[in-house]
Amino acid sequence: MRDRDFLRFFLAQAVSSLGDWIGVIALAILAKDRAGYAGVGLVMTARVLPGFLVGPVAGVVVDRWDRKKTMIIADVMRGVIVLSLPFVPGLPYLLFASVLLESLTLVWGPAKDASLPHFVPAGHLQHANSLTLMAVYGPWPVASIVFASLATLAAFLAARIPIFGALEGNEVSLALWVDSLTFAFSAVMISIVAMPASQRTARPLDWTEAKRDLIDGLLFVRDHKQVRPWLVGIAFTFVAAGGVFSLGVVFVEQVLGAGDRGFGFLTGFFGTGMIAGLLAAAALGRWIQRDVLFSSAVVLAALGLLVLGGVGSLDQALPTALIIGFCGGVGYSTGYTLMHQATSDELKGRTFSAVYTVIRLGILVGLGLFPFVAGAIGDHEISLAGGVLDLPGSRTTLWLAGLLALGGGVLSTRAIRDRRAGEAAAPRPKRGYFIVFEGGDGAGKTTQMTAFAGWLRAHGEDVVTTKEPGGTAIGRRIREVLLDPEQLGMDARTEALLYAADRSQHVAEIIEPALAAGKTVVSDRFVDSSLAYQGLARGLGLEAIYGISEWATGGLLPDLVLYMEIDAATGLERAGAEPDRIEREGGGFQERVAHAYLALAHESPNRFVVLDGSRSVAEVHADVVAVYERRRGAEPPTLVVPGELAPEPGPVPR
Ligand code: TYD
User: Fold this and answer.
1) pLDDT digits over 378-410, tens only?
2) Which residues contact 532 (CB under 8 A, 6 or more apart)?
3) In the prediction, which pLDDT does 247 show?
4) Contact 141, 272 (CB under 8 A)
5) Which terminus of the chain, N or C, has fewer Cβ atoms within 10 Å?
6) CA-based nearest residue to 353, from 364, 339, 342
C-alpha cells in the first residue's frame, strides 16, 4: 500500500466495485418496481448472460488493447449508463443496461488482473491478490449501507426541499447518480496510475490450441476425485445464492413487510458476514481439515437458508443473513484454497476458469429461474388446526433453494471420503521429485541441467543439483580411480562396483535427505548410466547391474529420466580434447551405449523420455521444460529390466 501506484489502483478497484454492487441492488429494485417478480429475474439473467458470451472475448480484447485505456473507457461508459437509468422508463432499457454494464465489468476485470504484475513485484503478488479480493467483496456490505442511506436521504430531501420533490417515489435515482460518480472516480484514479506499457506481441490467436486447452481443463475438473465434489458443492451453493438474491427483494417486502431499505439491510448483513467469513477462513483452516470445513460451511449455510425461509420479521432475518454470509465466506475462501492445493500450476488457469463458469452458470440459473418458480408456485395459505400458515411463493422457493444448497453440501462430503480412503491406502509424506539427465558423452547434459535447474528455481522449487560419479567427497575419490586414463587394466566388475559404491554414498548423503525434505533433485546420471555402460555396453548384464545398484540405493529410482540423444561421433567431438578412460574406449563402445539407452527407454516408457540433443540449446531446453510439466504429478514409475538387448531398439517415448 505504500506504493503510490498500487494504492491508486486499489482505490480505483474498491470504489468501482462499490459502484458495481450499488448498481446491482438499484437495478434489482428498479426492475421490481417496473415489472415485479419476473422483472427481477430477467434483469439478473441479463447480468449474468454476458459472462458466457463476452467473457472469453474480453480476454482477447484485454490482451490486444492498451489496458489502461480499456479500463478508463469501461469506467466512463458504466458511469454514463448508470446515470441514464432513472430517465429511461420501462423494462427493456433496464435489460439492455444490465447486459452492457456486465459486459463492461467483464472487460474491466481481466484488464485489471492483467495489469497487476506491472506494479507488483512477483514476491508480493499473493498479497496483492488478497487485497484485490477484498477490494471486490469488501464494498459489498458498504454498498448496501450506502444504498439504504441514500434511499433514506432521498426520501428526506423529497419531503423537505421543494427542488428535490421529483425524488418522491424515485428514491433509487439518487443512489444511481452517486453510483455514476464512483465510476468517474475510478476512471480518474486509473488515468493517473503510471502503468508501464506491456510488451505484447500481436500473436494471432490459435483457436484449436485454445480449444484443446479448454478440453484438457474440463477433463481434469471432471475426473479429479476431490475437485469434482467441491465444484458440485460450489455450483449448488451459487444456484441457491442466485435464488436468494433475486427472491430477496420480494421476500423482504412480502414476508417481512420491510420494503427497499429492508432489502438493503439484509444484503448488508449478509455481506458483512461474508467478509468476516473470508477473513476467518484461514484461521479456521488451521484447526479443521479444509475439506471438512468446506462441506460443513456449505451445509450450515444451507440450513441457514431454510431458517431464513421460516422467519417472520426483519430483526430475525438479519442475524440469520449474517450467519449465512459468514458460512458462505468461509466456504468460498476454503473452496478456493482447496482448488489451489489440488491443482498443479499448469492447470490452474483452466481449473479456475471452470470454477468461474460454474459459479456464473449457478448464479444464472438461480437468478433467472427462482423468480419464475416462485411465480409458478404462487402464494398459498394452509389452514391448520391452530390458525392459518402463510406460504407465499418467495418463502416456499427460498426453502427449495435451501434444500438445493444442502444437497450440494452433502455431495461435497464425498471429497472427504475419498481423501480418507486415499490416506488409508497410502500414508505417504510429501516427497521431493527426482529427475535424472542421461546421455552419451558430450550430449549437452550439463548445459541443459544448469538451464533447467535455473528454470525450476525461477518457478519457486527448492532444487539440489548433483552428479555421478563424484557427487560426494568420497565419490570424488572413487571418480579419480574410475576415470583415470592410466587404469587401463580395470576389470569390468570392479568398474561396476565402484560406480555402485559411488552411488550408494550419493543416495545416502545427498539424494535421500533432499527428497525427504521435499526438494527437487536434479542429477547428472544415475542408475541408468550403469545399466547402459556396464550392463549393456560392457555386457555385464542388466539384471546383475540392476541388482547391485538396487542394493546400493535401497531401490531408489528417478521419477523422470531425460535422455539426450546424440550420435556418438558428434558427442565425442563435443566432449573435447582430453578424453577420460571411458571416453577413450574404442571398438564401437559409444554406439553400444547409445543403443543401450534407447533399449532402456523402450522398456520403461513411463520414466524415460528421449530428447534430440543435436538441436540448439534453447530448443532442447524448451522440450525439457515441456516434458517436466507433462510428467510431474504422474504416478511414480517402476523399472522393467529387459532380459536382453534387442538388436534393433523399438519405439521410444519422445
Ligand atoms: P563425466 O566426466 O561425469 O562426464 P559426462 O557425464 O558428462 O559424460 O563422466 C562420467 C563417465 O562415467 C561417463 O563416461 C559415463 C561413465 N559412467 C558409467 O560408465 N557408469 C555409471 O554408472 C556412471 C554414473 C557413469
Assistant:
1) 888 888 777 777 788 888 888 988 898 899 889
2) 438, 593, 596, 597, 600
3) 82
4) yes
5) N
6) 339
One fold for 207-428 and 433-631: no
| Residue among 525, 564, 600 whose CB has most ligand 1 atoms within 8 A, to mutate | 525
Calpha distance 481→499 (Å, rounded)? 10
Cell reading at 314: 426483519
User: Which of ligand 1's atoms lies nearest the C-alpha of 445?
Assistant: 7
Q: Per CATH, is 1-196 categorized as 1.10.10.10? A: no
Residue 479 cell numbers, joined = 571418480
Q: What is the per-residue pLDDT for 203?
A: 46
Cell matching residue 274 = 461474508
The CATH superfamily assigned to 433-631 is P-loop containing nucleotide triphosphate hydrolases (3.40.50.300)
Domain boundaries, the chain: 1-196, 207-428, 433-631
d(CA 614, CA 647): 24
Residue nearest to atom 8 of ligand 1 (CA): 441
SS3 letters across 272-330? HHHHHHHHHHHHHHHHCCHHHHHHHHHHHHHHHHHHHHHCCCHHHHHHHHHHHHHHHHH
Q: How many A from CA of 575 to the centre of ligand 1?
A: 12
| pTM beyond 0.85, yes or no | no
Query: Would you put residue 439 in left (φ > 0), alpha (ψ -120 to 50) or beta?
Result: left
Residue identifier of the C-alpha nearest atom 20 of ligand 1 = 530
DSSP assignment of 59-122, as one string? HHHHHHS-HHHHHHHHHHHHHHHHHHGGGS-SHHHHHHHHHHHHHHHHHHHHHHHHHHHHHS-G
Low-confidence ranges of the chain (pLDDT < 70): 51, 54-64, 110, 113-114, 116-131, 133, 141, 195-218, 221, 340-341, 343-357, 360-361, 364, 425-429, 440-441, 568, 571-572, 574-577, 633-650, 652-653
Tell which CATH architecture fits domain 207-428.
Up-down Bundle (1.20)
- Nearest-CA residue for ligand 1 atom 14 is 582
Whole-number Å distance between alpha carbons of 67 and 333: 28
Q: What percent of the chain has pLDDT over 90?
A: 22
H or E segment at 466?
Answer: strand 463-467
